[in-house]
């Protein structure tokens, strides 16, 4: 097993995740089997209880693991299926060591950070690296490891110590360290400054790790003077210094690595020269370059609770992009805070209220994503009502499905107090209820999580057609509340159709309005399984409906034709997820987020 470690220096948010993902994609294109591990130094056991506004979205895996959004990067770039153990946290490591100590596994020894914590980290990496994630037998050839945070962070020190030991444990020819660092350009003089990276490398070496490759983030390609300085002061050959400069979209990053022969530098360190082949990225190149040429917009209003941080809906954004590229449209996302659609905002801030409604009314499609708590729920209900009554394509995910059911019950069934018990525990018309198997005392890991099966009730509905006429599908879930099965008959008799249910037939998974151009709500999170070139079917249907291509998509899907490019049959691909600020994918123009950006990174 070979290991490639990706670390970061100077500042956070440089794009370590997309760099690690791009390295994995590049190695895979060279014919190697690749897996990935993300190390998060925080004390939480997992990301499940973190606020999306602080940490970004919680990415959910097939096995129910609630993990860092960077694992979404890996899955989308490398096209693999990871497990919860592919995300290491300080909390997991310390918990495992404490459990061992309580069992008496350490035989009365004093349990310390070195060697017990550091050994546990190394054992975890080695064990997980050998778990196949690509559907084939046997372990991968290379494991890409990303160390979260920045060199010098106090919480990262045990991991750096462990990784230093690990490099000796596996041998120099099996361990390659890629350090991602910032080379800023000062506007005053216009010169690329290498000193921050020099100090970062020095700090890394002082902690026992020596980088073999430097990946320098900058606004432009490194000039020869800067490269020479870095080579001299960081003691690295010039060919091992890679520039990751700002590009039109994310998917050019693997191509930058390839063009600068990053794979050859890695092969030289890992003694893979002559074993691995030249990278075949023809399809990726075509898709990356073609996505730059899209200009005809499709405008989507995203009505959410956490719109101040795009990372909160990162996988939703990527699924929208996958679908829009397949339809040859340039995605425009208008971010609307759900509370801004409510009457209270009309009184308190009429300008914001009017601006939000203008965006909603100008949208080609309305998407209401998931969320927790009562804030903004009324605004989401209002958005669902507007989409239903005005025949605007609508996609509701998790809570977005639930509010659509609540709105229908209020407006069509006449249940004016219809609500979710999450929002109003005392409602007399509970449309959405707490799941009986859920825990009301513990929050972490107690939801209905991971891949669950949904059975279509008819193959004539839009969602079944989009999934190619299958009898059932497996999608990832993350929820505590569900549609009240006691109201299903009344809702269906009034025109709502629950076209997808679980194996018991009691849990509603997909809801549609048959006589609407496209009104679909899903209890699961289809965005987590959307891939470049293989967009999520319900997202594809949503975007296609928003730009007048739904019938063509349904025909393609029913015949089992690839959805790579609905309009012309060509093969295009958008890229994959990364953290919001990294590498500037400037194809997503919109009204901006709460920070006032004219376009959304």
SS elements, strand count? 24
Q: Whole-number radius of gyration?
A: 25 Å
Secondary structure class reads alpha/beta
Mean pLDDT over the residues: 89
How many angstroms separate the termini? 36 Å
How many H/I helical runs? 20
Helix content: 25-40%
Share of residues in strands: 15-25%
- Strand line-up across the major sheet: 19-18-21-22-23-15-14-12-13-24
Describe the global form: globular
Weakly predicted, low-confidence segments: 568-601
Describe this structure in words.
Its EC number is 6.3.4.2. It is a single chain. This protein has about 600 residues and is α/β, with parallel strands linked by helices. Helices cover about 35% and strands about 20% of the residues. A ten-stranded mixed sheet has the order 19-18-21-22-23-15-14-12-13-24, sandwiched between helices. Strands 5-2-6-1-7-10-11 form a seven-stranded parallel sheet, sandwiched between helices. The protein has a three-stranded mixed sheet with strand order 16-17-20, with helices on one face. It is globular, with a radius of gyration of 25 Å.
